[in-house]
Known about the structure:
Immunoglobulin-like; DUF7015; BT_3987-like_N; Lipocalin
Amino acid sequence: xxxxxxxxxxxxxxxxxxTSCLKDxxxxxxDADGAVDNIIEFGNLAAPASDxxxxxxxxxxxxxxxxxxxxxLVLKCVGAKPATTDIKVxxxxxNSLLNKYNxxxxxxxxxxxxxxxxxxxxxxxxxxxxxxAIIPLNLKPxxxxxDEDYALGFKISSVSSGVIxxxxxxxxxxxxxxxxxxxxxxxTTSANTSLVPSATKSVKLVTVGANRLKLTPGLLxxxxxxxxxxxxxxxxxxxxxxxxxxxxxxxxxxxxWNPTTKVLTVYWxxxxxGRTFEETFTYTGPR
Length: 287
C-alpha cells in the first residue's frame, strides 16, 4: 500500500517539476536558449509563380516597355521582433539558380542580358527597429525581346547579424515586357458566336511578343485551346491564331484594335468554317 501511495505521489509531482523547468528555461519561443532573433530573407516580389515543391521560389514580373524600369528587391527581417541593431545585407546575382530551377521544374529560363539591367548597389542596411529595406535593380524594358524566357537569380550572400533564410534566401525573378495591348479585359461574345454565345467573361491578354498577345484562359475565356492575337501597329488590324482549331483565311478585315477606347474586336471562323467567333475585348486595367 505504501508503494502505491509513493508512486501516486511521484506521478502528481513530476508534471509540476517538468512545467517549472519549461517555464524557467523558456525552451520554446523567441526568448528560448539558442533562439534566433532575426531571419533575413527576400520579400515577395509578387504572388509566387512556382510550385510549392520547388526549392527556389520564382516570381513572374512584367514591365511596361519604357526606357527605364525598376525592380525593387525587398530584404526582410522576420521573427517576433524587428531588428535590434543595424543589419547589413549583401546580395548577389547568381544565375546558376536558373539552371537549378530549370532542372527541378522542367523550364527553360535563360539569364537576362547584362546590357538590359544594372545593380547600382548590392548592399543595404535594415535599420534597428525596422523590418525591411530595398535594393533597386534598374531595368531597360524597351530593350527586352521575346525570343527566350528571361530571368535573373538572386541570393543573399551575407548578413551582419541574424541567419539567412533557408527558404527565401535565394529566388528567381522571371522578367518580361508588356506591350501596349497587355492587360485585363472584359470579353463579350455575340449571339452568333459558337460554343459560348452572348457571354461576358473576365480575361487577360498577356504579352508573348512585341505586338502579340495570348488569351488567358484560352478560347472564349472558357476552354484550354490556345488563342493568340497579333496587332499590326501601323493599321491596328488584328489577326488570330488558334493552333488546335485553325483559322479560316483570308481573315476578316473587320478585326481591329481601337487605341482610343482600348477595345479589341475580332471576327474569325474555325479553319474548316464550322464555327464562328465574334469577340469584343474591353480594357479594364493592368493585369
